[in-house]
Amino acid sequence: MSRRVFLAGSAATAAAVAATFERPQSAAAAGPVLPDPPASGIARAQIFDNQVPDRSVYAGLVYFVWGASSLAQPAGAVSCGYLPAFRDYDRTHTLAWFQANHPDWVVYQADRTTPAYEFGNTTYLPIDFTNPAVRTYYYDTYVQPLVDAGYPVVGFDNVGTFNGYGNCGHFDAAGTWVQQFSGERVDDTWAAAVLDWLGYLAGRLHAAGVGIAANLTWNASVKTADMLQAVGLVDVYVDEQGFTAHRVANYNDQAWQDKFDFVRQVAPGTAYVSINQTATADLADASTAQVDWVIANYLLYRERRSMLALCGDQQYHVFLDRPELHTDIGSPTAAPSVDAGGARVRSYTGGLAVVNPSSTQTTTTALPAGTWTDLHGTTFTGQIVLPPNSGTALAGPS
Fold first, then answer.
1. Is 162 helix (H, G, I), strand (E, B) or coil?
2. CA dist 303 to 172, 267, 272, Å?
3. Model pTM greater than 0.85?
4. Segment 209-246, tens digit of pLDDT
5. Three-state SS for 271?
6. Distance CA 13, CA 264 (A)
7. Which domains does the chain have, with CATH numbers?
8. Cα–Cα distances in Å, from 15 out to 19, 50, 111, 144, 146?
9. Among 203, 194, 157, 205, which residue's Cα sits nearest to residue 9?
10. Which partner for 396 in 37, 54, 241, 372 could form a disulfide, CB atoms 3.0-4.6 Å apart?
């Protein structure tokens, strides 16, 4: 989990809720039960549900629950179990415990002293996921109980195809250093190991009729080819960076184009969850401009199984709502395109999505005949002018 502690998802919790959900008996033969959102409107994802006392509040709105603490969900909402991808999820297994019991399982940074902690979180130790014994332990201890409880999908958090935490190697049972990775962020050996690990998890889960989801981290250090392979291994691609550059600002210019091109490449074939965090702690305080930006981008890239999560800065665990999230301009009638004014546009059966990803240029988009209405009731005829780094959805024409 990104700088947070998630308490649900233990074997005890899974066993306690197993009776509330029954996977189809033919799941293994028919394949995993995956999200199936409608073709129009905004299909949402819920990011953790352990602070949602009445999950019926998102019935008909949410189609995927990442880190579900309960299998009892409204119809159509698929529960996803949660696990950290590269760490031991038992907080009693301290560094001292590993040094006494499994000294060859801990992965260290280049100094050969500091474990390769994620986000500086020293609670959960990084383990050598290339080690067959570690793989067996991890799967049997953490994954299998979620499968046994009936989770239709199991999700793995913070999967980076770049070496973001300086993983270098481990000591063997005799105390000899084993160099595995360079420690640099761009490291083909690391990427290959991560892809192999995902393939192992996917293979075992799919054999059990269970889907796999992963929060695959996108940033300037990734290689597109590695990300494409990672997405190809999972059933649900969770993207915590979304189009708000991981909370405080919107993507723009070439960074926006790179992200948009990637999403458009994978969205047609993969269930895709875009998590967009605003510059405010509470979504209720977010600017209408940033909310409109998120929704316009969603409608611009949306495919049949694309889902959206919108929240304040790390405002997970609770259900959030805003009027803009109930926008429904129908289903897409064309692929996204660039208009004469430089904006990105996409036609829908009941409207139009318009995005200006430039950080410096204003765009002017010519509108078809009639009156068009934005998310806040403002009407436009003839054209719409968007300031830099903005977007909107228009209903119409009338």
1. coil
2. 47, 6, 9
3. yes
4. 999 999 999 988 899 999 999 999 999 999 999 999 76
5. strand
6. 37
7. 11-239 (3.20.20)
8. 8, 16, 41, 11, 8
9. 157
10. 372
